[in-house]
Amino acid sequence: MPETLKAALENSWFARLTTETAWGFAINEIVHILSVSVIVAVAVVYVANSLSKNTISSSQVRRYLAPFVGTSFLIALFTGFIFFAAWPDRYLGNPAFLIKMPMLIVLAALNILIWRGYKSETLSRKTKIASWIALIIALATIAAGRLIAYT
Amino acid sequence: MFFDLLANLSLDFYAIEYFWFMPMVETIHYTGHILLFGCILLFDARLLGLAPKLSISQLERLTVRFSILGFLIAIISGSVLLLTALDYFWGNPALVNKMIFMALALANIGLFHFFVAPKLQSYDSNAPTPWFAKLSAMTSLTLWIAVVASGRLIAYF
């Protein structure tokens, strides 16, 4: 990573909030975990709904999940980025982080796929399989995220 | 005395001897909390008035059982974590807070089952949620956020 970019990230207000204040890091961590919880719960609802005999109609699922799907992802991404900005070198050399990032991209792509699948009133096989894969990847992302501290 | 009883069950040997023991249990504990909080948030959001056409009982089947699963995972893995470093955790102010918030959150679930759930059918879908159901959902969200937050703060003491 170019030194100027690294310096800009490390000196940004949000990075300094976590490195120079006592509670910035803790608050950022808590918000990160809470937003990750919502991402996982959305994946749980997709899977549970596709397994349920009494499936909720797609339009209702979309209306209900709409406030959560994008928002939780954006908050998790932003709070995660704050950690990255504070210690770019540490993260770029961290194997768990390097595994987590491609999984996140796949997870985001699957979420878009599932969201589109829910435009149709009957859930296709593709949407159901994508829901399962999204849940598994979301759980793997939690593990990778936790292991950043250990690798 | 309770401390001594727990100290006899100490799992610190595993934490010291196997490097991956702690991160593995921690990951399981996080997963439990994440399932618990995420699914509760989605259920409470409906009680707070989101998507009123959606049947509450139908949604309950999709979310609540997974939050119970998350709770069980968190309790078991949390107990294992406690036994790996009892001296460190015992009396930790953030852990004490976490236990208090958890007890209150569980009491709130008890109140929900006694006072809110029996009348649920009358506003299951296509009807505004009454104030006491909203209050219960707000209390639940606040307390579970407090549980997660104080859990995360244990490492700071």
What share of the residues of chain B lie within helices? Answer: over 70%
Give the count of structural domains of chain B.
1
Described by strand count, sense and barrel closure, the largest sheet of chain B is:
none
Backbone shape of chain B: elongated
- Poorly predicted runs of chain B are none
| Principal-axes shape call of chain A | elongated
What is the CA-based Rg of chain B, rounded?
A: 18 Å
Spell out the helices and strands of chain B N to C.
HHHHHHH
**Rounded average pLDDT of chain B:** 91
- Gyration radius of chain A, rounded: 17 Å
Number of strands of chain B: 0
**Poorly predicted residue ranges of chain A:** none
Structural class of chain B: mainly alpha
Structure commentary:
The complex is a heterodimer of chains A (151) and B (157). Chain A has 151 residues and is mostly helical. Chain A has one domain. Chain A has seven helices and no strands. Chain A has helices at residues 3-11, 13-20, 24-51, 58-86, 88-92, 95-117, 125-147. Chain A is elongated. The model of chain A has no long low-confidence stretch (mean pLDDT 93). Chain B has 157 residues and is mainly alpha-helical. Chain B has one domain. Chain B is built from seven helices and no strands. In chain B, helix 3 (21-47) packs antiparallel against helix 4 (56-84) and helix 3 (21-47) runs antiparallel to helix 7 (131-153). The chains are: A mainly alpha (151), B mainly alpha (157). Chain A binds chain B through residues 26, 29-30, 33-34, 36-42, 44-45, 48-49, 52, 54, 56, 60, 63-65, 67-68, 139, 142-143, 146-147, 149-150, and chain B through 23, 26-27, 30-31, 33-39, 41-42, 45-46, 50-51, 53-55, 58-59, 61-63, 66, 145, 148-149, 152-153, 156.
List keywords for this structure.
heterodimer, A: 151 residues, mainly alpha, 7 helices, B: 157 residues, elongated
Write the layout of secondary structure elements.
The complex is a heterodimer of chains A (151) and B (157).
Chain A: H1 3-11, H2 13-20, H3 24-51, H4 58-86, H5 88-92, H6 95-117, H7 125-147
Helix pairs in contact in A: 2-3, 2-4, 3-4, 3-7, 6-7
Chain B: H1 2-8, H2 12-17, H3 21-47, H4 56-84, H5 86-89, H6 93-116, H7 131-153
